[in-house]
């Protein structure tokens, strides 16, 4: 793997919510360009752009209508080229989102496929005369009827996201050409979306009521297709990260072991409800650390993250967005930036942005939230109860406009944005944190700089101490030094764990250990 990938600090931009440059209420590429100074000062060296391709935006761009055109709301290809050039001038890399499990039903391939059972696009999608009882991720059947073809097509996600048929060699060649086109343009790699579902051979025998995602997850031919594509991609100087569904470490390793040449690292997707309603998130998080330790032991590389556009805000989920907000956001930054692998930051985590807690379902935009709300109403819940339930895990929690300042629309736009601004923009925003030496933003800057300068934090061995919840403590051991990281991931005062002592330990971040550790205590010691 290239050195720059090991040194990367990746910052995920959700373009719709990052910065609106033309005041239409929707973030855009020129908005991203206008914030490159900010990102550079933060210490970011790699951007991952969520989809900016032409799309009807049924799933906010994860339904692509044309892979080689930029969505007009986001700007033009010329704007994109400038963004790429300006990133490269600063020594920053730009990684694209690649959505190739499905496309939009408005893509030309699907328009053509709908027309004929024998034409050149006939097999680009999955068609069936009689559908079975598979369920789609965003509610309802995974099959939809197409009048013109008098057949049903498969959609793992929404009905506007038909699944592409990777058994069709013409389709695969088109995808390979498109990927090459972006690489020739100079993009620095891909985050590959929903890639665990390429092999659909499981759908026929799936028991009634199974989710399409379960029926076709991690099947052998999916890996074969992926390896063929990625072995070509890896001949270039790129970063590759797969968004995968893994039901255990071995399924994860199948994607990231270097010998398999599939991905350099993986972002493991977990339905947000699993974490939001988990009985013991501390234990859950420790288990994630154990998985990362195993990945590292096997000679593979990790992608370390706490947030993205599919999850609630990390400070609200794992920390505290009330009394201990400041301390909790810093403690989580420590966890995100001191583990093995490449850290991924999601826009706004560096200022401790929180969940949004809207009062009305009409304030929500996310297709997933709305589908789940409907489902709860059908289960007999009142709208208040349904909203209370689905809002906790809503993906819109992380999609509210970036809070640049305390003005009406948080400096994101001068007009009403596509999704409401979080009311706490007057206290949580970039501008105020830039002026405050103790802010979360300043803490991120210091920690990123520290991480970039430390080979041990990037590649050192990791060992987890057996501490009782809610303490998380691990060691990172390198050739020249060892770091000990201790976090109290709770709002309780807890007894300090007994850890190996060293007379020469130097406190690099946080407070010195004492008998009792305050809420969201953290420390990084160097030996
Ligand atoms: C995963 C993406 O992260 C999510 O936002 C999207 O809805 C699904 N894949 C479908 O593309």
TrEMBL record:
An annotated Gene Ontology molecular function: alpha-amylase activity
Q: Which residues form the Glycosyl hydrolase family 13 catalytic domain?
A: 12-399
Q: Which UniProt keywords apply?
A: Glycosidase, Hydrolase
Q: Which Pfam families match?
A: Alpha-amylase
Annotated Gene3D superfamilies: Glycosidases (3.20.20.80), Oligo-1,6-glucosidase, Domain 2 (3.90.400.10)
Family note: Belongs to the glycosyl hydrolase 13 family.
Please give the name of this protein.
Alpha-amylase
């Amino acid at each position: 793997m290239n050195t720059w990938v090991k040194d990367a600090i990746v910052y995920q931009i959700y373009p719709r919510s990052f910065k609106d440059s033309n005041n239409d209420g929707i973030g855009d590429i020129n908005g991203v360009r206008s914030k490159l100074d900010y990102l550079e000062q933060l210490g970011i060296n790699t951007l991952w752009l969520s989809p900016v391709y032409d799309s009807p935006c049924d799933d906010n761009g994860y339904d692509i209508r044309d892979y080689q055109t930029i969505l007009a709301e986001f700007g033009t290809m010329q704007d994109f080229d400038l963004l790429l050039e300006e990133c490269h001038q600063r020594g920053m890399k730009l990684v694209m989102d690649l959505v190739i499990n499905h496309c939009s039903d408005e893509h030309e391939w699907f328009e053509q496929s709908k027309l004929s059972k024998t034409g050149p696009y006939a097999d680009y999608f999955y068609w069936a005369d009689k559908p079975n009882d598979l369920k789609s991720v965003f509610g309802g059947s995974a099959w939809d009827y197409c009048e013109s073809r008098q057949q049903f097509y498969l959609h793992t996600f929404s009905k506007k996201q038909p699944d592409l048929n990777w058994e069709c060699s013409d389709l695969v060649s088109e995808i390979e050409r498109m990927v090459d086109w972006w690489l020739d343009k100079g993009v620095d790699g891909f985050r590959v979306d929903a890639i665990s579902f390429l092999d659909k051979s499981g759908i026929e025998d799936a028991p009634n009521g199974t989710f399409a995602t379960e029926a076709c997850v991690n099947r052998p031919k999916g890996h074969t297709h992926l390896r063929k594509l990625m072995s070509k991609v890896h001949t270039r100087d790129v970063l590759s990260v797969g968004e995968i569904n893994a039901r255990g470490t071995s399924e994860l390793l199948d994607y990231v072991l270097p010998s398999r040449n599939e991905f350099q690292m993986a972002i493991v997707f977990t339905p947000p409800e699993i974490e939001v309603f988990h009985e013991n998130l501390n234990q859950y998080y420790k288990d994630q650390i154990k998985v990362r330790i195993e990945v590292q032991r096997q000679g593979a590389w990790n992608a370390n993250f706490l947030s993205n556009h599919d999850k609630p805000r990390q400070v609200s989920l794992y920390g505290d967005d009330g009394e201990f907000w400041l301390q909790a956001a810093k403690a989580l930054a420590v966890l995100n930036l001191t583990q093995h692998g490449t850290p991924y930051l999601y826009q706004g985590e560096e200022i401790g942005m929180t969940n949004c807690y809207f009062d009305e379902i009409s304030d929500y935009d996310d297709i997933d939230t709305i589908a789940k709300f409907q489902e709860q109403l059908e289960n007999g819940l009142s709208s208040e109860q349904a909203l209370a339930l689905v809002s906790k895990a809503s993906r819109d929690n992380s999609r509210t406009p970036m809070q640049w300042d305390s003005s009406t629309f948080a400096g994101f736009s001068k007009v009403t944005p596509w999704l409401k601004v979080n009311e706490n923009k007057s206290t949580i925003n970039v501008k105020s944190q830039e002026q405050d030496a103790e802010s979360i933003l300043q803490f991120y800057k210091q920690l990123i700089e520290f991480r970039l300068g430390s080979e041990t934090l990037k590649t050192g061995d990791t060992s987890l101490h057996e501490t009782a919840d809610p303490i998380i403590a691990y060691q990172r051991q390198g050739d020249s030094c060892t770091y000990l990281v201790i976090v109290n991931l709770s709002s309780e005062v807890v007894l300090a764990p007994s850890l190996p002592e060293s007379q020469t330990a130097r406190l690099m971040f946080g407070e010195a250990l004492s008998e009792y550790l305050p809420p969201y205590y953290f420390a990084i010691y160097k030996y």
